[in-house]
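Handout, section 4.2: multi-component inputs.
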Amino acid sequence: MEMKKIVLIEDDADLYSLIQYNLDKEGFTMVGSQSGKGAIELCRRERPDLVILDIMLPDSDGLDICKGIRAHPELQHIPVIFLTARASETDRIVGLELGANDYIVKPFFVRELIARIKIHFRGQQPATKLLKAGELELDRSRCQVRLSGQEIALTATEFRLLEFLMSRPGVVFSREQLLDAVWGHDRAVTDRTVDVYVLRLRQKIEISEASSFIRSVRGFGYSFNIEVPVTQAQ
Amino acid sequence: MEMKKIVLIEDDADLYSLIQYNLDKEGFTMVGSQSGKGAIELCRRERPDLVILDIMLPDSDGLDICKGIRAHPELQHIPVIFLTARASETDRIVGLELGANDYIVKPFFVRELIARIKIHFRGQQPATKLLKAGELELDRSRCQVRLSGQEIALTATEFRLLEFLMSRPGVVFSREQLLDAVWGHDRAVTDRTVDVYVLRLRQKIEISEASSFIRSVRGFGYSFNIEVPVTQAQ
DNA sequence: CCACATCGTCATGGTTTTGTAATGTTTCCT
DNA sequence: AGGAAACATTACAAAACCATGACGATGTGG
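Output:
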């Protein structure tokens, strides 16, 4: 997961640094303000992946800020977590119905805040599951392989074999293991078959004679090369 | 918004009916069980849009059910809300980190539960009511398809199949997946059927022989072409 | 109750893929 | 070097895969 950026608006200095410390420890980038003024501008400038918002601020209302975020076409998709001491039913409802994505009542456990933050980052995995190795790209969801941007036509078995090898680059697999993984456990296939498929793959995705994506490891099996082969120099 | 379906697993009869009443009032479809046994099967059958899960059940553990849902490839995207009396820090963290999307501690306000449910349905609206690919347009709200501006008459099944494929252009789906998505989970349909429908779709929406909107991916299934087919040359 | 549209299945045939056996080549050991 | 084992290649027949046309069942509106 790339580094996620979080904006924190919280006037209580102690709580501010506590959260800052913990977000930092978790590997998030944090920018923030202890005042509600200019919060929208801060978000427009920083384009965070998530906003943590105290509702009761001395100079402005967190609810208004949330409303502002939701009204802004560029920001409206950003998840907002409210943080507040108000625990009454209507307060909560108003917050949630106003467009907040979560609502945490003070005092709270920091680890819970972190866990709830992570929920919003979960599930939005990259649309395409892409395996890369130098010029070679394998797109799982499209069942497609490209070499230097150009599509390479592979058969189903070839694709699955390459996918398996690429998903664990450098690891050497015996023919036995490859048969289990690619052909299935109830296979009825000779292990020489693997050789043939490696050959077919090589003929399709090999660039030069010198460097090979698939490495034969005599006496053991095959592995996907980590030393990324290159066409020219790099 | 179409009718959303919610599965509720809660052993306390009073709470069960309270929630049932309120979900019903809000216009949600609810199915549920007062036992944890068979919860996964229930979800597989019903394919709900959200699951509300009590953690402490007399016959099984809500955490395990959640784990089961997250482990099932067809169910793992479904939001899970935990409902529980356990308020300790570790309980909450475990619940959230296990894959739950929300965690509500009893006793709670029903309106808050409703508000939190709605959060999960918000924003996941298909942003595009209108799917486009070159000359081909699919209007979800009107159940209408146009090719070069001219309306094409599709049957219900043809429409759903095309809609599903177009909604994730480029992604390859197995016949199995297409049957699940288009025909439903309680299907009693051969997977050869998909071939026939693809054929029928092609006959109706295909422009030329060279370029095709629906791509056959031998050994895997079908996908909607991203390379937008063109009437003329490129 | 008939005409018509839709649905799902089946059988067919052409094409691609697959697995194996046979043969050639490299590597390694003595 | 000689030979054996491991790997690379080639060629080919069997199997799998998909497109297609036809058909019966079911449902629906007139």
